[in-house]
Amino acid sequence: MTSFRLSDEQRELRDAVRELARERIAPRAAEIDRSAEFPWDLKELLATQDILGLPYPAEYGGLGGDLLTCCLAIEALSAACATTGLILAVHELASLPIVMAGTDEQKARWLPDLAAGRTLIAFALTEAGAGSDAGSIATRAVRDGDGYVLTGTKRFISHGSVADLVTVFAVTDPAGKRNRNLSCFVVERGTAGFSVGRLEHKMGIRGSPTAELMFDDVRIPATNLIGAEGEGFALAMRTFERSRPGIAAQAVGIAQGAIDIAAKYATERIQFGRPIGEFQMVQGLLADMDAATEAARSLLYTACAAIEAGDGDAGRWAAVCKLVAGDAAMRVTTDAVQVLGGYGYLDEFPVERMMRDAKITQLYEGTQQIQRLVVARSLLAAHR
Q1: Residue 61: phi, psi to the nearest 5?
Q2: I want to staple 215 with a disulfide (CB 3.0 to 4.6 A). Which of 8, 130, 136, 150 is the partner?
Q3: What are phi and psi of 286, to 5 degrees?
Q4: Which of 12, 21, 133 is nearest to 82 (CA)?
Q5: For residues 242 and 64, what is the distance between their CA atoms, to the nearest angstrom?
Q6: Domains of the chain, residue spans
Q7: Alpha carbon of 298 to those of 5, 213, 301, 359: distances in Å?
Q8: Cβ contact 300:247 at 8 Å
Q9: CA separation, residue 186 to residues 122, 222, 228 (Å)
Q10: CA-CA-CA-CA torsion for 117, 123, 128, 134, nearest 10 degrees?
Q11: Alpha carbon 26 to chain centroid distance?
Q12: Selecting from 3.40.50.300, 3.30.930.10, 1.10.599.10, 1.20.140.10, what CATH number does the domain 233-382 have?
């Protein structure tokens, strides 16, 4: 088992991002939620502070941060505003196929602008009929001369309407074996036939646009193919092994933010002549919230270290940390609303927003049921 220990540099980065989140991001969070508009100002803040450069190799202008370092930043941002934490998480997710399987020319073409935050990128795998069942993707990519023609529709694509680049997964071999017939492409904004359809109205993370993307005979050059034909499904699964911990980090951050608010409120709210934090039932809620969050955080950090070290069971580590953290965030934020009572149900306090935001961590990048399947299959395979 691989253990983790934060380096001095990681602690310094975590503390710096926490301070930035408290001073610059938290004051914007409620308005972002109400307006449901993408926070371009905070995207620029993350770019100027080099936070968006964390996932990228230094040779392309990034900071070369490892998985744990990126998760520390996502966690700190999400404690103040889950929408802002997601900017970094999606930026990393959608870039991973290029980083892992792109050619040197492709990396030189796209990564410097992504690392600098001059461009944003989205990840387009999901369709209306292909969510957890990624093998049922219907979008087609047909080879035509020196390029491909993409046809189809993607659904529930985070940042799809604001991204400059989109990594798109499409079927290139309709007669091929299931899960071996997909390929990955980069589609650039402004390409003829590529358009944005509906934007979803969501329960939480409202400032993060979730878009429908439509591809109407979109012609792209063969140089935009990432990896080889037929490797798309495997590439998507490898991507999730490194991106699911980012969602776990978002969940841990949301939970920690809710704890901080609930604990402070418990010291200030007077009932029956004393702060409610002096009542054992409230103390029990707070203790359970803290224990669940610390357990999820410890598992997340250990998973990051194991995945970074090349553990052969990376898929299980990624799934189990997202599973535990997502469930913890939902439970902790619900209990935070309970601590605040009627005030917790009002948007005067952030915990109702945090509860709404927490739910998505149990859904995207694979539902909790899918994570359980991944973990169980790994466990059973190890004992055959």
Answers
A1: 90, 5
A2: 150
A3: -65, -40
A4: 21
A5: 14
A6: 8-119, 122-230, 233-382
A7: 11, 37, 5, 21
A8: no
A9: 10, 10, 13
A10: -170
A11: 19
A12: 1.20.140.10
Q: Which fold has domain 122-230?
A: Butyryl-CoA Dehydrogenase, subunit A; domain 2 (2.40.110)
Whether 200 sits among the annotated catalytic residues: the reply is: no
Q: What is the pLDDT of residue 3?
A: 61
Please report the pLDDT score of residue 134 as a whole number.
87
* pLDDT-flagged residues of the chain (< 50): 1
pTM for the whole structure: 0.97
Cβ proximity of 195 and 216 under 8 Å? yes
Residue 2 confidence (pLDDT): 55
Q: Given this model, what pLDDT does residue 36 score?
A: 98
Whose tokens are 């140089």? That residue is 223
- The whole-number pLDDT of residue 187 equals 98
Question: Who contacts 46 (Cβ-Cβ below 8 Å, separation ≥6)?
Answer: 52, 77, 84, 87, 88, 117
Task: Give the 3-state secondary structure of residue 170.
Answer: strand
CATH classification of 8-119 is 3.90.1700.10, yes or no?
Answer: no
- Choose the catalytic residue: 75, 127, 212, 365: 365
Distance CA 297, CA 320 (A): 12
Q: What confidence score (pLDDT) does residue 135 get?
A: 87
Residue-wise pLDDT for 240-283, tens only, equals 999 999 999 999 999 999 999 999 999 999 999 999 999 999 99
d(CA 368, CA 8): 34
